[in-house]
Amino acid sequence: MKRIGVLTSGGDNPGLNPCIRAVVRSALHLGLEVMGIRRGYAGLLDGEIIEMNGRSVGGIIGRGGTILGTARCPEFYEPKGRKEALRSLNRFGIDGLVVIGGNGSLTGALELWRMGFPVIGIPGTIDNDVNGTDISIGVDTALNTILDAIDKIKDTASSHNRAFLIETMGRNSGYLALASGIAGGAELVLCPEVEVSFEEICQTIEEAYVLGKSHCIIIVAEGWKPGTQVLAQYLLEREDTLGFSVRVTQLGHVQRGGSPSAFDRLLATQMGAAAPRELLKGNAGHMIGLVKNEIALTPLEEAVAFDKQLSPQMVELAEIMRK
Ligand code: F6P
Fold first, then answer.
1. H or E stretch covering 101
2. Model confidence over 65-110: pLDDT tens digits?
3. How far is the C-alpha of 4 from the C-alpha of 20, rounded, in Å?
């Protein structure tokens, strides 16, 4: 193997730049050439590929986003698109590929591997829904952003004696909501994985009011059904009995930006540096993860087989802490 490519794909997250930097610098250290592929699989299909050196990744360790750009690329999920991708990789003399992204991007990596191309994956998504790793790149920074928002909302909520629904991202996973709810001292967390009735939600708000709390913070995962807006409408119609008046904040894409935290910079550097090394060792077809604080490999097939499940201990912890 002489020349590898690196791409970031799918939703961006705040740890991508330190990860690209680590892939490039570790590959150069191992005597490999590195090509940066712009805009994920879309740029691979379009041949948007540039040579990278140590300087191309200078000054990016503290920057959010991705210097390579990213995209969601439906064409790549068709066999024709993947054949074009292989053609492009051959045209640029790339003989190994590092894919940094979430479940969709890693499924794409698995497909290329199944077609015989040496690929290695790195889990990068704020959703923390990838198997084979305790935590994905970007999660910690996103959590810190959410906590900052919760703390600020608590200030205004307490001043006005209000209940707030704060909606977090996470697609179908409740991880961001659950972890930020525990760390942010929320009164209730609503996740897609845990059933809670509207009556129970009203009861929680009423209890908080009767206990003399100055606010009631409810974190709602975006994947929770029937959704934040439906719940908000229901609660607004019952403000008289709840005690608190109700407001809603949808945090949205602010969760995906910002300078990576110390944890994310370290994680991204460890995972990124491992990728070229593992490719050279013949470990293509795997994803690099962090398991019990050690870098570990999981076959891509297992990593993307199903979404990572919420820890029942964390669900219980949120329940114990909220009273
Ligand atoms: O997968 C990351 C994520 O931020 C999810 O949490 C969210 O559902 C989705 O991407 C939003 O995607 P987009 O940026 O395309 O709107």
1. strand 96-101
2. 999 999 999 999 899 999 999 999 999 999 999 999 999 999 999 9
3. 12
Residue of 70, 103, 127, 250 to test ligand 1 pocket, by largest number of atoms within 8 Å of CB: 127
Cβ contact 39:48 at 8 Å = yes
What does residue 54 show for φ and ψ, rounded to 5 degrees?
-55, -35
Asked if residue 246 lies in contact with residue 217, where contact means CB atoms within 8 angstroms, the answer is: no
Domains of the chain: 3-138+260-303 (3.40.50.450), 140-256 (3.40.50.460)
Q: Say which DSSP state 183 is in.
A: H
What is the Cα–Cα distance from 58 to 236, expressed in whole angstroms? 51
- Does ligand 1 come within 6 angstroms of the Cβ of 169? yes
pTM of the entire predicted model = 0.97
What is the chain's alpha carbon radius of gyration, rounded to the nearest angstrom?
A: 22
Average pLDDT, the chain: 97
Contact 138, 101 (CB under 8 A): no
Question: pLDDT value at position 322?
Answer: 79
